[in-house]
Amino acid sequence: MSEKILIVDDEREIADLVSLYLENENFTVFKFYNATDALACITQEKLDLAILDVMLPDKNGFEICKIIRKHYNYPVIMLTAKGEEIDKITGLTLGADDYMTKPFLPLELVARVKAQLRRYKRYNIGTDPEEDFIIHGGLVLNIKTHECTINEKPLCLTPTEFSILRILLQNKGKVVSAEELFHGIWGEEYFQKQNNTITVHIRHLREKMGDSFDQPKYIKTVWGVGYKIES
Length: 231
What we know:
With 231 residues, this protein is an alpha/beta fold. The protein folds into two domains: 4-125, Response regulator (Rossmann fold, 3-Layer(aba) Sandwich), CATH 3.40.50.2300; 133-229, Orthogonal Bundle (Arc Repressor Mutant, subunit A). It is 42% helix and 20% strand. The chain contains eight helices and eleven strands. The protein has helices spanning 12-24, 35-44, 61-71, 85-93, 106-125, 159-170, 178-186, 197-209, and strands at residues 4-8, 28-32, 49-53, 76-80, 98-101, 133-136, 139-142, 147-150, 153-154, 219-222, 226-229. A five-stranded parallel sheet has the order 2-1-3-4-5, sandwiched between helices. It has a four-stranded antiparallel sheet with strand order 6-7-8-9, sandwiched between helices. Strands 10-11 form a two-stranded antiparallel ribbon. Helix 1 links the parallel strand 1 (4-8) and strand 2 (28-32). Helix 1 (12-24) crosses helix 5 and helix 6 crosses helix 8 (197-209). It is elongated and about 60 Å long. Residues 125-130 and 189-194 have low confidence and may be disordered.
């Protein structure tokens, strides 16, 4: 039985596009352009996740989130306007699990929906499977299939490049040394590798990602220490 997803957005083009992407992933979608109809659906259907736009013509997304949290604990993803940091903070304070800033990539939203549903199921059944997706901005890593996309375009990575990116993303906000990367990829073979191996792989990775060395969007060099991806 497919999971039931609620999407509420008065921008019909966005709601219709997100609905299409979710339905292509075999989700059952309940789509509304206002809060009143959405609230009726919330009480009538057994939902698995809600996607709520902040700005709506009647009630706003925060009010819907508060109502959901009074009765249900399924994941809520808020859609916020670009640069509205206060909206993100407010949404998370009211019980939202995640947020996305408009404009966003539909595939990234789908990946976040799947990630939130996995966490929700894991919490409720007490299992602890490895996360299949790692998401950062327009970058999406599928751990299970070893596939990577950047801004919805496939990124062809070698196994080593994929492993480096995975380790850096799993340690977002932290500096990872070249030695730690070696051990994470090759284990005890670390001492048999040349010192510049990681540097070369990082350079190739940046080239494929279109990442600038001087002003990197993703992988930053912390001189004398290692590499990091900002959280």
